[in-house]
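USER:
Working in pairs, take the chain set out below, taking as long as you need, and write a paragraph about the fold.
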Amino acid sequence: MERPRTTTVSHFRGRSTKVRPTLHFPEATEEEFAVEFGRFLDRTNGVAQSEQLFDLLSAFALNFDCRWVAYGSITSNQKCLEPVRCNPAVLLNFPEEWQERSFEMGYDRIDPIVKTCRTRPDAFRWSEVYNDVSTTEDERRVFDEAATFGLRSGISVPLHGPDRGFSIMSFAQVWNGELHNRTITYLQLAALHFHLKVTESAVSSDTENEPDLSPREKECILWIARGKSSWEIGRIVGISSDTVNFHVKNVLRKMDTPNRTAAAIKAINLGIIDV
């Protein structure tokens, strides 16, 4: 079986409750945290490419000793994370060996972090999930094995959106321990900023790619979506069936679709028509 190009995978562990200072800010003040966050915001200003944004986010996370970062989206009827629609590249930097192992074992299908994110509004430590009474032994085994690949502790941030869909941002460390509450706050803010930037870019891309249909073309494809033939559409709008076919042909070309049905479905999904 071919391994998918990208997926955010199970990556959790955290039975230790020890809190240790971060690598770069062992005695960081609130002002220093705020300065680093401000720099992250400044560096992302004007950046639209999700890959560049992810690189900047990863660099910011390193300030807090979080070497591994992952971002993925999920809809209400999915059971595991998938790459965000607007970004064909990998949006995670987890060890390649762990990605392969997780896919091979199907760990993404029993990911307890996805389950937790469905009901949690804010960031949480992986140790909370590991120690939760509802977590199964199979799920804990995923945690334990992930730790052998260097994913030993961290947090996940649920990023909820419309239609019950959501995205998940995860930050992981190579040592056993817990992140400070203050660190979690800044990582959560950075994750939200990243998510909004990526979403904004996706919306802009969809708008730019929307076919430019004329009023008559929209009218014809609307009636096609309502099940009308060319002859019936001609009678309704007061033109010949040949003229209807001419407009429909233009719609198929502009929307890059093979037939009328596909064009009608695409027009509905893009919000061009409303049946």
Q: What stands out?
A: The first helix runs from residue 30 to 44.
